[in-house]
Design goal:
- 9% of the residues lie in helices and 40% in strands.
- It has two helices and 49 strands.
- The strands form nine sheets. Strands 30, 35, 37, 40, 41, 42, 43 and 46 form an eight-stranded antiparallel sheet that branches. Strands 1, 4, 10, 11, 13, 14 and 18 form a seven-stranded mixed sheet that branches. Strands 27, 28, 29, 32, 33, 36 and 38 form a seven-stranded antiparallel sheet that branches.
- The longest helix is centred in the N-terminal third of the chain and has 53 residues.
- The radius of gyration is 34 Å and the shape is elongated.
- This is Big-1 domain-containing protein.
- InterPro entries: Ig-like_fold, Invasin/intimin_cell_adhesion.
Length: 703
């Protein structure tokens, strides 16, 4: 029998080979096209994530002014591809995060032609010496396997942007210039990290505070300017600053103060950018220094200045504090620095003091009944005091102390009285940009007659004038004078509160808490002025009320650097003239209105401590306390002279008056001047041993 070959299995084998080939081709295509495409998507998404994290890092840096603690920001430099059963991934991509120029002393930010408005601070900010500050950039450079067109993301001078080969795309706004506010944060330290993992960048404040220094141009022909090196050309900085560039330079009606933005070729691929500000304008300069990586440096003392006036007055037999402040080149306080003092009269209690955590140094100037009536010069220095002392150099300060035979303490309330925040009787009724033309706002100034700076925390407003029932600005934006219900212009720091929809009167406003928008508490130097803007008063939700001849009573609560709280109360009248009949009620400055439960079998009392003043003189001060039912607990009438201190303990006639059925003590202070004008301040004490001033519980009005 003959057997033939069986070839039936060959078709199966050929099919298997073909199928295997198809699988190989499909896998190769998946490996060559699908995997890179998926990985590119992973890399693109990671790059978006890093851009967001660089913006978080930027926010941490620009918030260093006023931020005393270190902030940590995580940045994911690389990423991981998804796991695959058969296909293979390239190695995980990484990225490089590095600083550029931050340790190169030749890469500077420079401020020119800036002269401080405060005399002793002007020894350092003299307008003729350019001030240089090293700074640079932080950049992220990705090292992807597939996403080859990924940008380098850069932070510099408050801006984050993507740098492509074809151009740049900004990811954030700039914070260097905002109207008359100039905020400069330099970058210090060195860092270079390349990894696929995340890294934590610690942003450490090396010099910071919320302090601002008022500066202006030195002459009518010079301009305050800020110059710096940047990877962005001038055209892109002009776009970033578009809202700040004055389209009509010199027009004082505009809110833009940048006169020009120019650029020139700098070293390497950098541009030298210069922002020129308009002349004859006072700018608020705030500066800080942020450290990243390693090698960042602390700032040492640069100059010494006064906190308050360079001229003080002390009555013979009294004492006066002279407060100084040690600052670095960024105008921020430096602690633990020894300051030397001397005076020919020998009235300084000590000749050496060290700066505290706020950079402040306090010297006590003591006089007695034998101290000669004279004007003495007191010298202070960060260096040794010798015959070569020059009070006009940055590290030296001269203070003139006038010793008088009388009891005045300086101040500016008409009779040379120290009266806390003294109203300057200059209120104007003005209109803002709302649709009507009615002057429904009030602007006025006050003088901080203390030698120390103060921080204004609260203000209460009351009015007994016809139809003055609400305050509502009804315009935007809300962060400018005349465009918010309350704006206080302080020489150290401004503050404002915008109340959405306005508010009824009377009202108590906690400046850094209340409102729809706000910007912290204003601060005013000793012996310096503050400006208050209130817009606009209305009978309801109607058009504004003409505030000419109408009055609003203010109770302004403020604190000293040591935490002590006081409150000044006065009434302002729009467009009041000195030739008009005297309608001005007395002014009062309260240190305490405090309940004391005492010890043992003593009766409770209320301790009053305040100063009262009026140009026509004080007729009477009546102090009254009543219980919850309105029954009088005690009352007394005093007849102080204008400018004198009322320090009186009002006996409540019983022990534990705040117990049982009585849960409060109502306090009323009635001030009457010699022209018959009356000022009433009221408050309710609900807890034992509490102070109405500390509790912000005192509100004043005119009847």
């Amino acid at each position: 029998m003959t057997f033939m070959g069986d070839e039936r299995a060959q078709s199966v084998q050929v099919g298997a080979v073909l199928l295997f080939g198809v699988l190989i081709i499909a896998f190769s295509s998946y490996q060559a096209f699908a995997v890179p495409e998926q990985n590119q998507e992973v890399e693109f998404n990671h790059n978006q994530q890093v851009q967001t994290q660089l913006q978080d890092l930027r926010n941490a840096i620009v918030s260093v002014p006023g931020q005393p603690s270190r902030q940590a920001v995580s940045v994911q430099l690389g990423t991981r591809y998804p796991s695959r059963l058969v296909a293979t991934n390239p190695g995980p991509p990484s990225g490089l995060l590095y600083t550029d120029g931050t340790s190169n002393e030749s890469q500077n930010l420079t401020i020119r032609n800036a002269e401080a408005r405060t005399p002793e601070t002007a020894d350092y900010w003299d307008g003729t010496t350019p001030r240089h500050y090293n700074t640079g950039a932080i950049a992220y450079k990705p090292e992807y396997n597939v996403y080859g067109e990924a940008p380098e993301t850069v932070y510099e001078h408050s801006v984050v942007y993507n740098q492509f080969r074809e151009g740049n795309i900004t990811l954030s706004e700039q914070t260097m210039v905002d109207g008359r506010d100039i905020t400069l944060v330099t970058l210090n330290g060195s860092m270079s990290r390349s990894t696929s993992d995340s890294v934590t960048v610690d942003v450490e404040p090396k010099s910071q505070s919320s302090r601002t220094v008022r500066v202006t141009n030195t002459t009518s022909t010079s301009n305050v300017s800020v110059s710096f090196l940047s990877r962005l050309p001038a055209s892109e900085w002009r776009a970033l600053l578009d809202n700040e560039i004055d389209p009509n330079p010199g027009d004082k009606g505009n809110e833009q103060y940048v006169a020009s933005v120019t650029g020139a070729e700098g070293p390497g691929s950098l541009y030298n950018i210069t922002i020129v500000f308009e002349r004859d304008t006072t700018y608020r300069l705030k500066m800080a220094k942020a450290g990243v990586g390693s090698g960042d440096t602390d700032e040492s003392e640069a100059y010494l200045t006064t906190v308050g006036s360079e001229e003080i007055t002390v009555a013979r037999g009294n004492n006066k504090e002279i407060v100084l402040e040690v600052r670095d080149a960024y105008n921020n306080p430096v602690s633990g620095i020894e300051v030397n003092g001397s005076d020919d009269a020998g009235a300084l209690a000590t000749n050496t003091e060290s700066s505290d955590s706020d950079g402040q140094v306090t010297f006590e100037y003591n006089t007695d009944s034998n101290t000669p009536v004279a004007t003495n010069q007191v010298n202070f220095s960060l260096q040794s005091l010798d015959s070569s002392f020059d009070g006009e150099t940055p590290k030296n300060v001269s203070v003139s102390v006038e010793v008088t035979a009388g009891s005045g303490n300086g101040g500016t309330n008409g009779n040379n009285e120290e009266i806390g925040l003294a109203y300057n009787y200059d209120a104007l009724a003005l209109d803002n940009d709302d649709p009507d033309t009615i002057p429904g706002g009030i602007q006025y100034s006050f003088t901080n007659t203390h030698d120390q700076q103060v921080e204004i925390t609260d203000i209460s407003l009351t009015s007994q004038s016809t139809n003055v029932n609400r305050i509502s600005d009804q315009v935007t934006p809300n962060d400018q004078r005349e465009r918010t219900e309350l704006y206080i212009d302080g020489d150290i720091r401004d503050g404002y509160t915008d109340i959405d929809g306005g508010t009824d009167l009377p009202v108590d406003i906690d400046i850094d808490i209340d409102g729809f928008e706000r910007d912290g508490n204003p601060e005013v130097s000793g012996q310096s002025d503050g400006e208050v803007y209130l817009y606009e008063f209305r009978p309801g939700n109607n058009d504004a009320v003409d505030m000419s001849g109408k009055s609003v009573t203010q109770t302004i609560t403020y604190t000293f650097p040591n935490g002590e709280t006081r409150a000044s109360a006065f009434t302002v009248t729009g467009d009041y003239s000195e030739s008009d009949p005297d309608i001005r009620p007395p002014v009062a400055d309260f240190g305490s209105v405090k309940h004391n439960d005492n010890t043992g079998n003593n009766n409770d009392d209320v301790q009053f401590e305040f100063r009262v003043a009026d140009k026509s003189g004080i007729d009477s001060v009546e102090l009254t306390a009543t219980d919850e039912s309105g029954t009088e607990l005690n009352s007394v009438t005093r007849n102080p002279s204008s400018g004198s201190l009322v320090d009186y303990k009002l006996n409540l006639g019983a022990k534990n008056v705040l117990s049982g059925s009585n849960s409060r003590v109502n306090v009323e202070i009635t001030l009457v001047d010699n022209s018959g004008n009356t000022h009433i301040c009221e408050g309710t004490i609900r807890n034992a041993d509490t102070d109405l001033i500390d509790e912000r519980g005192l509100r004043c009005r005119t009847p």
